[in-house]
Amino acid sequence: MSGETKPSHPTRQREAFFGRLKGPKLRERQRRLIEEVLPQRRIDLAKGPPSQLRDLFPVTVDEIRLEIGFGGGEHLHHETGRYPETGFIGVEPFINGMAKLLGALDDAPRDNLLLFDEDAVTLLDWLPTASLSGVDLFYPDPWPKKRHFKRRFVNATNLDRLARVLKPGGHFRFASDIDTYVNWTLVHCRDHPAFSWIAEGPFDWRTPYEGWPGTRYEAKAKREKRTPAYLTFVRR
C-alpha cells in the first residue's frame, strides 16, 4: 500500500496481541506524514539500545514513559503537552492510528515523543532494564472469545517484560471497559511477584486518571453502556 513504511530492523514473527494493521485508505496528508515524518521519530532497533534511553530524545527529559497501543493518540498527545520534561514512547502498529497521531503532531508539535510502529514486545525486549517510569495500556484489544484469551497482551510473559523495563516504584496503568479483561488483568497482576495493585476502594478504579482527556474508544464504550475501569499497579 502506498505510504506503508519499511521495518527499521530485521522482523520476527509478531506475537499476535493485536488485530488488523490497516484500515481505510490514507488521505494524501496522512500518507505524506507516514512517509516523511514517521521515520524522523521512529525508534530504530537495529542500532541497539543506548546506555541511557533519554539520549534518543532531541530534548532533555527527566524520565520516560511508554504507551502501548495508543489508538488515535488522543491521550498520548495530551500527556506530551502536559509533561514537556518527560520523554514519551508511543507504540501503535495500526497504520491509520499512527497517521492520526502524526496529524495531531503536525498541528501541535511535541519534541518529547518517539514512536514505534511494530510489535510492542519487540521494543520491550530491546529497551534497557529499569529504563521506564511508567507504562500505559489503555483499551487494548479484549479478544473476548475464550479461545482467543491467549492473545491478550496481559499475560505472565509480558508482565515479566514490563517488570524488567520499569523502575522500582514505576506504574503500570491499564484501562478497559471489558469486565472479563479487567478481571483477567487483576488476577494476572495479583499473581505476579513484581506488581501490586494500588486501590483502597471502588472510587480508585472507577475514577479516570488525573488529567484524563478521554479517548474515542472510551466514548464508544460509554455510548454502549459499558463502564470503564482504571487500574494502576506499582512495580515493587
Automatic annotation (TrEMBL):
Name the UniProt key words of this record, in alphabetical order.
Methyltransferase, S-adenosyl-L-methionine, Transferase, tRNA processing
Task: Specify which residues bind S-adenosyl-L-methionine according to the UniProt entry for this protein.
Answer: 67, 92, 119, 141
Residues annotated as binding substrate are: 145, 177, 215-218
Q: Which reaction does it catalyse?
A: guanosine(46) in tRNA + S-adenosyl-L-methionine = N(7)-methylguanosine(46) in tRNA + S-adenosyl-L-homocysteine
What segment(s) does the record annotate as region Disordered? 1-22
The broad enzyme category this protein falls into is transferase
UniProt GO molecular function: tRNA (guanine(46)-N7)-methyltransferase activity
What GO terms fall under cellular component here? tRNA methyltransferase complex
Please name the InterPro entries in this protein's record: SAM-dependent_MTases_sf, tRNA_(Gua-N-7)_MeTrfase_Trmb, tRNA_methyltr_TrmB_bact
Q: In which pathway does it act?
A: tRNA modification; N(7)-methylguanine-tRNA biosynthesis
EC numbers, comma separated: 2.1.1.33
**Origin: domain of life:** Bacteria
Q: Which family does it belong to?
A: Belongs to the class I-like SAM-binding methyltransferase superfamily. TrmB family.
User: PANTHER family, per this entry?
Assistant: 3-DEOXY-D-MANNO-OCTULOSONIC-ACID TRANSFERASE/TRNA GUANINE-N 7 - -METHYLTRANSFERASE, PENTACOTRIPEPTIDE-REPEAT REGION OF PRORP DOMAIN-CONTAINING PROTEIN
Please describe what this protein does.
Answer: Catalyzes the formation of N(7)-methylguanine at position 46 (m7G46) in tRNA.
- Protein name (Swiss-Prot/TrEMBL): tRNA (guanine-N(7)-)-methyltransferase
Origin species, per record, is Fulvimarina pelagi HTCC2506
Q: By which gene is this protein encoded?
A: trmB
